[in-house]
Write a structure and sequence with these properties.
Elements lengths: L43 H10 L5 E4 L6 H8 L3 E6 L2 H11 L4 H23 L3 H8 L10 H4 L2 H14 L4 H18 L16 E4 L4 E4 L7 H22 L6 E5 L12 E6 L9 H4 L1 H7 L16 H15 E10 L5 H11 L3 E9 L12 E9 L6
Parallel strand pairs: 1-2, 1-6, 2-5, 6-7
Antiparallel strand pairs: 3-4, 7-9, 8-9
Helix pairs in contact: 3-8, 4-5, 4-9, 8-9, 8-11, 12-13
The protein binds S-adenosylmethionine.
S-adenosylmethionine binds next to β2.
Length: 391
């Protein structure tokens, strides 16, 4: 069993789902660290649920798959897994975590980055960045409309050079590189480093309250080549480990779609594990706006659940009804505690579709991942369901 060999493996002692023992590094093993994602769940949650309720060859589904935590854990546990998300960036991240890439090509690309890193460093040392730019970098620094507010010209030009280089790469390798770059974009931009949401400071020089330091966006070193090279090296090692631990014949498929139409894509599942969006106008588009713009992705638009708080329960009802049609097995849903009792209302919806309550786990969120610090406790509701097709 792979779990015992993993740095992230922590057995649930006495049904302790708080996972007090694990720190952030234990949630970032294998490909899980590839990209930040708002309110992603720690991999131990789907891992334990699939391990406890599933068996090899089962079909796992996550209708709100986000950055693919369930897909990675499903495949590691020998289950065919499908994940739906309406956000194209989410699907790109899932693909980067799962798909095989051309390692030789990636190696050549990393050498190219390392070469440019040296050129960049020496041109900086000699105060000749301008010369370097004139010789090698694209003339127009624009990445998207008004990108000059978000990226310094030298940074934008280096990013453009990367895109020029990978334009003809095969889609998996290109996607892998784009995801690595996407994770770095906010840090390479002029956005305040003490905010989660991209946000411009009033002046280039500002005080970062979170990290207790002054930042000067005009002069700080932003070496795109060096940053991307080290990110991709770590990612490549992790992806190889992941492929060594998993079997090629196990299907693992991210699907770009609206979960409200899930029966169009999925006809059968044995385990559904999911953490749906929050009801309070969560907007993944704004949060990942730089990636959307730089990578030229289409907006998920109003179909994104949680953008409009008033439609939240209606939207969830549609998804749950469809799940109840195709699911023959276990439905585990992770949902934050709310003052407004939305978690109870969602539970009521699930029961109203004929699912049977198996277990309710209330856990303290001690190991927050990105952006969800406001929620301190969450529920893992576990139900069983008999597919309507079988009845
Ligand atoms: C809390 S996140 C899921 C995080 C995921 N568990 C992970 O570990 O990455 C909720 C996800 O629901 C997605 N979402 C919102 N509305 C959706 C819809 N109508 N159909 C499919 N996915 C949707 C969002 O894009 C977001 O990725």
């Amino acid at each position: 069993m792979y779990r015992e060999n993993l740095i992230g493996y922590v057995p649930v002692a006495n049904n302790n789902w708080d996972f007090e023992e694990i720190g952030i590094k234990h949630t970032q093993y294998l490909t899980h660290f590839f990209h930040h994602w708002a309110a992603k769940f720690i991999p131990q949650i789907p891992q334990n649920i699939i391990h406890e309720y599933g068996k090899s060859g089962d079909i796992v589904l996550d209708p709100f798959v986000g950055c693919g935590t369930t897909l990675v854990e499903g495949k590691l546990l020998n289950c065919h897994s499908y994940g739906i998300d309406i956000n194209p960036l989410a699907i790109k991240i899932c693909q980067a975590k799962l798909n095989t890439i051309d390692n030789e090509l990636l190696g050549k690309f990393i050498s190219w980055l390392d070469y440019y890193n040296k050129v960049y460093q020496s041109s900086l040392e000699k105060g000749q960045l301008k010369l370097f730019e004139e010789e090698k970098l694209p003339e127009n620094p624009s990445l998207f409309e008004e990108s000059d507010k978000w990226f310094r010209d030298d940074v934008a030009k280096c990013i453009k050079l990367v895109f020029q280089k990978i334009i003809e790469y095969d889609s998996n390798t290109k996607n892998f590189i784009e995801v690595g770059l996407s994770d770095l974009l906010k840090g390479m931009s002029n956005s305040r480093s003490d905010r989660t949401m991209p946000c411009l400071p009033k002046q280039a020089k500002y005080y970062d309250k979170k990290h207790d330091r002054w930042i000067d966006n005009d002069t700080r070193e932003i070496n795109v080549f060096q940053r991307l090279s080290s990110q991709l090296k770590r990612m490549a090692v992790a992806l190889q480990q992941f492929h060594r631990l998993t079997k090629d014949e196990i299907i693992c498929q991210p699907i770009l779609a609206d979960a409200k139409n899930l029966t169009k894509y999925i006809q059968k599942a044995n385990i559904v594990v999911t953490s749906p969006p929050y009801w309070s106008a969560q907007n993944y588009q704004k949060l990942h706006f730089l990636s959307f713009k730089v990578l030229g992705l289409n907006e998920p638009g109003q179909a994104e659940i949680g953008r409009n708080a008033s439609d939240y329960l209606n939207d969830m009802d549609i998804v749950i009804e469809q799940l109840s049609e195709i699911l023959d097995g276990i439905f585990a849903i992770v949902i934050g505690e709310s003052k407004e009792n939305i978690h109870e209302e969602v539970k009521g919806l699930i029961l109203s579709h004929g699912m049977r309550e198996e277990e309710t786990i209330k856990r303290n969120i001690l190991n927050h991942t990105f952006f969800a610090k406001a929620v301190q406790q969450e529920f893992i509701y576990i139900f069983s369901n008999t597919s309507k097709k079988r009845v």
